[in-house]
Amino acid sequence: MSNRHLALLLTLFFAAQALAQAPEPTPQRFQELEAQSRAIKAEVLDLEAELSALEQDIRYPAQTRWTVFVTAEDSNEADLSQIQLQVAGRVVASHQYSDEEQKALRDGGAHRLYIGSMNAGEHPVSVRYVGKDGNETFNGDTAFVMAKPAGPQLLELHWQPEADESMRLGHKSFADTP
Predict the structure, then answer these.
(1) What pTM was estimated for this model as a whole?
(2) Per-residue pLDDT, 18
(3) Long-range contacts, 168-171 (Cβ 8 Å, 24+)
């Protein structure tokens, strides 16, 4: 157990002990306890974020880390409904977008579709997608060879509904640097 975890547990213990011995509650006392509670929650969230980052570094070492994001242009033409990512013929990720997620993509958001490990070298990648334009649904796919250098790498899959059918889902790869 780390020192931060121990400090958090001790803080919670002493807060509980103080509550047990506290005189009649007052509005000021409630405000103080609420402030303490918010501070503890913030510290727990910070610890969770640190733990998540450490877990990611252990599971996906920087030399082989590969992250795939999906973005979209702000357009009323067509929405991305589903996407499936394959590497070397194996499905590694798929996602079906809700109306809220589609709106978030149109508003400039990015969806992390996949994070994993990929050795340096060339890898065949194919992406299948389903788009929806009003009541019309259409399917498409794109395939390319991913040249991954050593070190963390990002791949952006960019939905461009107003482009020609063969260009609706573009891709761009770049180094993942802090």
Answers:
(1) 0.67
(2) 65
(3) 168/78, 168/129, 168/131, 168/140, 169/127, 169/129, 169/140, 169/142, 171/125, 171/127, 171/142, 171/144
